[in-house]
Design a protein that fits this description.
Blueprint (H helix, E strand, L loop, with lengths): L2 H8 L4 E2 L2 E8 L3 H16 L3 E9 L1 H33 L6 H13 L7 H12 L16 H7 L2 H6 L4 E5 L3
Parallel strand pairs: 2-3, 3-4
Antiparallel strand pairs: 1-2
Length: about 170
Amino acid sequence: MSLRDSQAAAGSSGAAGGVKTVNLALQGGGSHGAYAWGVLDALTEDSRLEIGAISGASAGAMSAVAYASGLAEGGRDGARAKLKQFWLSVSGEGSLAPGERKLLGAWANAWGPAWPGTRWLGAWADALSSFVSPYAFNPFNVNPLRHHLAAIVDFDRLRAGDGVSLFVAATN
């Protein structure tokens, strides 16, 4: 029986046994998602609070799914561990060693003379982006975050569970 079920059975208005049920809305934006990790971590540490539902957009939705998956698998400690695992894996996605950055920079700079009028290239790209979404130029469907979520979330278990209610919004 979930906390919500026990509260409904007892005729409670949301604070059964000193536990208050809260609902959260987590906004999108990469760094906002990582910020939500810290907030969820702190709220999960507080045994006086129970998260009943989470609405999340984009990066907030990913935090919500990681939290709910961890909660279903291992309770509060599982939720905290799953959030940490997800966001640490994401943070390593773009990391390059100093030598790798130097080589990549040298390679990119070598192409400069091959592009006549390269200072206009940025202006052209800006103008084009106002007419066409950058997502239209993804013929290989590259989605670097998909494998991070798929590696840690059992979506079938999450869908079948009766844990925290999730309301997610994300673009394809």
